[in-house]
Amino acid sequence: MRIDQYLWCIRLFKSRNMSTTACKKGQILINEQKVKPSREVLPLDLISVRKEQLWRSFEVMDLPKSRVGAKLVGLYAIEKTAKDLVEQEALKKLAAQVSRDKGTGRPAKKERRDLDEILLDESFED
Q1: For 10, which DSSP code?
Q2: Is residue 58 within 8 Å of residue 80, measured between CB atoms?
Q3: Domain with CATH 3.10.290.10 in the chain
Q4: How far apart are CA 22 and CA 78, in angstroms?
Q5: Could you report the per-residue pLDDT of 103-125, keeping only the tens digit for each?
Q6: What is the rounded average pLDDT of the residues 91-103?
Q7: Kind of pairing between the strands at 46-51 and 54-60
Q8: Helix 85-97 vs helix 109-125: crossing angle, to nearest 10
Q9: Cβ neighbours, 10 Å, residue 30
Q10: With a threshold of 0.90, does the pTM exceed it?
Q11: Distance of CA 117 to CAs 61, 102, 113, Å?
Q12: Residue 55 near residue 38 (C-beta atoms within 8 A)
């Protein structure tokens, strides 16, 4: 089964087109290697997906015949991201603090400096 189809079948992406685009952008890794959308997935492969600025890892358990319900996803993929969960939650909180109004455009130089200052303050608190 192709990687783009597999990611769609286990409900990581809403459409197959979105999973194909993610592969082309280099946001999908299989066993630590960037892959094309046509790459075949095999059981016991380790898939890393960058979505919403976070890397999530999954181990392939089996290949579904078609898109599965949300309750059945655990039969086909097991998430292995638990070790980095604390870091990811901290990044989510930080991203929530640094939000901009929609339609305001790119940040100005002063705004970028302020954002960098917030990021540096957060990293020194750890």
Answers
A1: T
A2: yes
A3: 3-80
A4: 20
A5: 777 778 888 888 777 766 655 55
A6: 67
A7: antiparallel
A8: 150
A9: 19
A10: no
A11: 43, 22, 6
A12: no
DSSP the chain: -BHHHHHHHTTSSSSHHHHHHHHHTT-EEETTEE--TTPBP-TT-EEEEEETTEEEEEEE----SS---GGGGGGTEEE--GGGHHHHHHHHHHHHHS---TT--SPPHHHHHHHHHHHHHHHHH-
Q: Is CATH 3.30.1300.10 what the domain over 3-80 is classified as, yes or no?
A: no
CB 93 within 8 A of CB 125: no
3-state secondary structure of 52: coil
The CB density around residue 110, as the number of other CB atoms within 10 Å, is 8
Q: Which amino acid type is present at position 27?
A: Q
Q: What is the largest CA-CA distance in the chain?
A: 52
Single-letter code of the amino acid located at 6: Y
Q: What percent of the chain has pLDDT over 90?
A: 53
Q: Which of the two residues, 7 and 56, has the higher pLDDT score?
A: 7
**Strand partners for 57:** 48
